[in-house]
Amino acid sequence: SExxxxxxxxxxxxxxxxxxxxxxxxxxxxxxxASAQLLEAALAAQEELWQLDPTSSSNRIDxxxxxxxxxxxxxxxxxxxxxxxxxxxxxxxxxxxxxxxxRLQASANVKLPSTSAAAAQxxxxxxxxxxxxxxxxxxxxxxxxxxxxxxxxxxxxxKPAPISAVDEQAS
Length: 171
Prior knowledge:
This protein is mainly alpha-helical.
């Protein structure tokens, strides 16, 4: 996928981006891409667990799959909230996503050896999600701060002239 100042291309679809929301969509896209990588790593981790212990209970591995499904679900919520333009919804969804990623990471790291390539891929993708999610939320907070500053400056009464200036004008 490519992006420039006013459009983003995903596959063959070109999406027109509002100028003010480009960073939001870029970070949302980065989260979705990293989530796909995280899910691929979770599948690799699942395969690795089966290879390490083919007789192990499938319950251990199922928890990894359930955690990965949770990440996919929350990623979809973040994307939907970004499309709807709800800043509060985006922030809430990002928090849930970060929690789901942490649970997946913890589950994989407990079950996989420290030398696992799948665990390394999973942790790298989780780091990308965390970074992009933080940028997304900070960007929203920055927009909120700018909007409140401009609103307060336009509704604030003008500062009264000092008394000495009023006295001089009267004479």
